[in-house]
Write a structure and sequence with these properties.
The chain folds into two domains: 9-92, Spermadhesin, CUB domain (Jelly Rolls), CATH 2.60.120.290; 98-131, Low-density Lipoprotein Receptor (Irregular). 0% of the residues lie in helices and 35% in strands. It is built from no helices and nine strands. The chain has a four-stranded antiparallel β-sheet with strand order 1-6-3-4, with no helix packed on it. Strands 5-2-7 form a three-stranded antiparallel β-sheet, with no helix packed on it. Bound molecules: calcium ion. Calcium ion (CA) binds at residues 118, 121, 123-125, 131-132.
């Protein structure tokens, strides 16, 4: 994928049914703020926005669609230029999805596996802290009052 200067572009990427898409930026340099690239999960302007990119830093990670379509939309004004951007995409099955954990394990949001007992035990075990993220508060202050 390559953009020519001062040219907006809309690319809709399609993979086979049942596959998803991995988008990888090789080079990214557009005029900060004025030019931007939107990456959406799915096809069309109402699909979920995954990233808005501008300036000279592309996304920190590759982007993965959840379905078999992804949209890349490049907006530019008429002044100021960057090099543009180059990206490639790969389609496959469950790209970017972490391997599932064993039955007795808890899967952290970022994919790591910890022992199932580690979930909501008050100690952070996942590198991302997700094992303690959605826990009911089980501790609290107990006030005991005694009448004389
Ligand atoms: Ca824990």
């Amino acid at each position: 994928m390559q953009t020519s200067r001062q040219r907006d572009g809309l690319w809709t990427l399609h993979a086979l049914q049942g596959q998803n898409i991995q988008l990888h930026f090789l080079d990214f340099d557009v005029e900060a703020t004025y030019d931007m690239v939107e990456v959406r999960d799915g096809a069309g302007p109402n699909s979920t926005l995954m990233a808005v990119l501008t300036g000279s830093t592309g996304p920190a990670h590759d982007l993965f669609s959840t379905s078999n379509q992804m949209t890349v939309w490049f907006f530019t004004d008429s002044g100021g230029y960057g090099r543009g951007f180059r990206a490639n995409f790969t389609s496959g099955v469950d790209l970017g999805s972490p391997a599932p954990c064993a039955a007795a394990q808890f899967q952290c949001q970022m994919g790591a596996c910890i022992h199932g007992n580690g979930q909501c035990d008050g100690v952070v075990n996942c590198p991302d802290g997700s094992d303690e993220a959605d826990c009911e508060m089980s501790s609290g202050v107990v006030i005991v009052a005694q009448s004389p």
